[in-house]
Amino acid sequence: MINPREVHVNKVSGSVSLLCAAVALVACGGEQGAERSEEIASSQELLSVATSLALGNSHVCAGLASGTAYCWGSNANGELGDGTTTDSSSPVQVSGLSGVVDVSTEFNHSCAVASTGADSGPSTSAYCWGANGYGKLGDGTTTARQVPTAVSGTAGAVAVATGYNHSCALISGGVVCWGEDGRHQLGDAADATSRLTPVTVASLTNATAIDAHSYTTCALRTSGVVSCWGDNYLGVLGDGTQTARKTPVDVTGISTAIAVTVGNNFACAVLSDGTVKCWGANGVGQLGTGSTSPVYSTTPVTVTGISNAVAIDAGHDHACVLHSGGGVSCWGLNGNRQLGDNTTTNRSSPVSVGSLSNATLVSAGSITTCAAISGGGVKCWGSDVTGQLGDGGSLPGTGSGTPVSAGLP
């Protein structure tokens, strides 16, 4: 995923500034009425732009430039955050959140970074909702929550990441994690002790972005190095071994990364030259090398045909990149048409999501993929069994092999 501090926050600030400028014109009477109305309408549209986007197993959440968050899809555990447990094929607003700058979703829970405090000097904290096994909501309990609950000790958070049963937050270059630790995914050097509240990841002080999936967590560092910890099945930590790690280890040969993402037993990074490297499982072509042989790699290999990537996100068994021109390419598992090429053929090298040319964010889930669109809106493709496409259709939906528009406000 893209560095939330550099992208998500800046987009929010930019949109709010444009709105304030439009309001000021009206107040001062400096423009004709029609022009003022057009300026205001344009600014209001900007406030509906998705500035963060995340897909879980069967649900989607988006943070908007207005500071609100909306989710849709599966809601059996309250992971949509609207106070119910009813699935929804239309986006519903997450209750009680404002100033949202990042969202993350996984198996059956969701988290966000949102503002707290007075308008004169707001800070941010992490909030989570949904299932709470192993304490992955970070509120000191294992009680499921249908609306966001504050995560203790996360003041100043700028990004969040969620795995199956753990969650993490990025704070001032450091990372804290909470929830299940059976495979050392919390990174605190302890002996696999689950935590109901955050603990600090050991020896990590210069992180700029984080991501998690399943039982593994990774961080991008200011130096361009990627460090990972937790489960290392099939080499997902990228250190040349399959040994689980209690504390962060550096991915072999990565020193110029600008983005990192973690899937199910594989991970990828975008490098400063626009190329992409992946490591870990490759049984369905997740590494994007044009082949499923070998079936895994414990060190990074180059994704074929990518030279202008600016962002990346991995789902369960597929990955997608955002190109500098706004296009999107995906590879890996495609049984539910999650690659967006209108087939169900797995791909071991990237294929273009043909109708997309103006994407600003991309996020891959288990069997669905979505992209935020320049100027506002989100488009999704793949499975729609629990309403993951967000188009308001009846459930279960039939899905789509090409992008369809989610009904965001």
Task: Explain what this protein looks like in three dimensions.
The model is unreliable at 1-44 (pLDDT under 50). The protein is 9% helix and 41% strand. It contains 2 helices and 28 strands. The strands form 7 sheets. A 4-stranded antiparallel beta sheet has the order 1-2-3-4. Helix 1 runs antiparallel to helix 2. With 409 residues, the chain is mainly beta.
Question: In a nutshell, what does this entry contain?
Answer:
This protein is mainly beta and 409 residues long.
Question: What topology does this entry show?
Answer:
Layout: H1 8-28, H2 33-46, E1 50-55, E2 59-64, E3 69-73, E4 88-93, E5 102-105, E6 109-116, E7 123-130, E8 145-150, E9 157-162, E10 166-171, E11 174-179, E12 195-200, E13 207-213, E14 216-221, E15 226-230, E16 245-250, E17 257-262, E18 266-271, E19 276-281, E20 296-302, E21 309-314, E22 318-323, E23 328-332, E24 347-352, E25 359-364, E26 368-373, E27 378-382, E28 400-405
Antiparallel strand pairs: 1-2, 2-3, 3-4, 5-6, 6-7, 7-8, 9-10, 10-11, 11-12, 13-14, 14-15, 15-16, 17-18, 18-19, 19-20, 21-22, 22-23, 23-24, 25-26, 26-27, 27-28
Separate helix tally: 2
Shape: globular
How would you write the strand order of the largest sheet?
Answer: 1-2-3-4
Would you list the SSEs in sequence order as H and E? Answer: HHEEEEEEEEEEEEEEEEEEEEEEEEEEEE
Q: Spans of 5+ residues with little confidence (pLDDT < 50)? A: 1-44
Helix-strand makeup class = mainly beta
Strand content: 35-45%
